[in-house]
């Protein structure tokens, strides 16, 4: 049964990301497929210009890329240290003037004082990973709907439950308590994950693939696409990437383009570690 929302998980998430800092900024450099695939589809669906909200932006990797493309950005995140880092990165990259809406510490479930119908597009690329309670997930999507203009485009990231079961089966000691089959069975039923080891990725919620479209559509969005940001790349280990990179740059880029195309393949969506919902506000 879904428990009522509480402050405890928010505090754990804040503690986790406060200690992440530069590692969170560089994560998408160390694991570039997710960013590369997502940016491909962002560019495909974004309007040619306009105001974009990056809600739950962390240190702002996507926001900086979109600012460099000429969009007007507003950045929000729950973690003050990451908002500070994002401001510093914008200054370092000489992009501060593109952040016309500023940098804000905000809970994705409560975006006030951001005004209704303010943005041509919005990203929600992290907060739903950690909202373990249904009422909080609904609040975050209602707030997204509120601040985006009618007809505006949204990009919402989800974590895949099937992929996490696969991760636990492949690397059980890395995902305690999912090193026991009874715990894996419980997780497969409710999607709630709390790491046994202190300081690890925790306070998380993983989605059933079939639930994503109905969830978004029930909150006022028309589905355009659901893609697998890492799709088949989620099961490629370092040795696999090394093999293909050693075939030369042209072959490596062919692989990347293949995975960009495979992101749309419905038969492999569940195996993707991250899923990207693309929708239009009705």
Automatic annotation (TrEMBL):
GO-annotated molecular function: methyltransferase activity
Keyword Methyltransferase: yes
Domain Methyltransferase type: 53-156
Annotated GO biological process: methylation
Pfam family, one: Methyltransf_11
Keyword terms of this UniProt record: Methyltransferase, Transferase
InterPro entries in alphabetical order: Methyltransf_11 (IPR013216), Methyltransf_Superfamily (IPR050508), SAM-dependent_MTases_sf (IPR029063)
Entries under PANTHER family matching the protein: METHYLTRANSFERASE, METHYLTRANSFERASE DOMAIN-CONTAINING PROTEIN
Protein known as: Class I SAM-dependent methyltransferase
Organism: Paenibacillus lignilyticus
Organism taxonomic ancestry: Bacteria, Bacillati, Bacillota, Bacilli, Bacillales
